[in-house]
Amino acid sequence: MKINTFTISLPLSLVCLITCAPYSLPEPKAYSAKEPALTLYLQSQDLYQLAEYPDALLKIDSAITINQNFAQFFELKGDILRKLNQVEPALRAYQTAILQRSNNTRAYINIADLYHQQNHFRESIRYYRKALTLDTTLIPVYLEITRNYISLKEWEIALNILEDYRRQSLVSGRPPGTEYYFLKGKSCFYQKNYQMAIQELLQYRHEKQPNREVLALLGRSYFALNNFEGGLKYFNKLIRMDAVHGEWYYYRGIYFYQVNNLEDSMNQLQMALEIDSTLYNCHYYLGKIYEQRGDDKKAVEEFRLYRESMRQLKDLGTGQDEIRDLEGFEEDQY
Q1: Is 256 inside any structural domain?
Q2: Which of 11, 101, 195, 241 could pair with 71 in a Cys bridge, judged by C-beta atoms 3.0 to 4.6 Å apart?
Q3: Considering the entire predicted model, what is its pTM?
Q4: How far, in Å, CA of 138 to CA of 129, rounded?
């Protein structure tokens, strides 16, 4: 008869376990103060990746309670608080991360991002520059600094920073990214260097769909150069993308006025005002149309609306020529 060795060995094993001294068993693992904190940190990371931000915050706070000497803990806390739209606590968390580890470039960049979102542009620039000082390979940071200077309307400095970006990109063996052309074109536009703005913006390459701001800047630049035909196609594209934005109809109205199609010009300008009554420049061109049609009463009314609203005008190209035309027409009425 075949003997089942497993049946015999099992009781013997149980006897051995019972009779052996307890000190022969492996001792329970002793955790240092750091290890449970690290476990909580890893659990918080997992919850953060799952977008379970309140639970992630509880875990990381527990980790920090155990050990307050790890920059990564405070950096993760800042990330979680950003997702919870708690900006000031997030800033404090990132600042603490920097105190724990002064070369924490990611924390500097996160602080700079938050300051930019809050329109604290100079503070944003300061922290981006600190990150660049720590790591000169962070070449895209130059673009973020440029955005801040553009927000401050300091166009010349923005262009200088863009030149630094271009030079560093070429040194690293990479051509400037497409965002470079957008930012440079925008800066040139606001410096009224419209030809250069067009040259740069035409080099911008979008991946999925056209950038509306790029199209608008191109259209406005062509109009500023009196190339109304060149600019019209961009406003037509914008209308196809967003048919309820009054400004695009305003520029179409200017185009039709320039080609002496007064009926279509009037329709476009009235459409613009229906969508956005603050597009006061429309009143100027409507006044010009009524003037050309010999309807002086309506022309005076449109010019009156235009003049009264001049202090509230959006930047739609109102120039001294328009003001002189208006003054000349009104003088003729008296």
Answers
A1: yes
A2: 101
A3: 0.79
A4: 10
